[in-house]
Structures are given as C-alpha cells and as structure tokens.
Design brief:
35% of the residues lie in helices and 14% in strands.
Length: 66
C-alpha cells in the first residue's frame, strides 16, 4: 500500500502542538468586519486549539504523517 500524502491545503491551515493537539486560525474573520464588534475582532486574532472531534478528523485524513 502506498504512503498517504498530506493534503497540501491542510499544510497551510493547520499546525500541531508538541502534545499533538491541532492549532487552527480563528474563524469568521475573512470579510464583513464593519458589522462585528471590536471585542469580537480582538478575541478572534491568532489561533485556537481545535475541538477534539475536529482534531481527530484533521489528523486522520489531512495530516496522516504528522
């Protein structure tokens, strides 16, 4: 059976922590910033740890070699 390749889109979007958790960028900051509050925009910067169910899917199907 051939090796599984990492999805190239996933390489750009997800990172793993040293303990194996998945870091993802905060959602909902692509457009429409004028209708969002300043507090939301401040809190939506940087990255967050993905939910356990999402992280399992990401690691299994998108980042198999990580």
């Amino acid at each position: 059976m051939p090796k599984m390749k990492t999805k190239s889109g996933a390489k750009k979007r997800f990172r793993l922590t040293a303990t194996g958790k998945v870091k993802i960028p905060v959602a909902n900051k692509r457009h429409g910033m004028s209708k969002r509050g300043n507090r939301f925009l401040r809190q939506a910067t940087g990255t967050v740890i993905a939910a356990e169910g999402d992280a399992r899917t990401i690691k299994r199907f998108f980042l198999p070699n990580a």
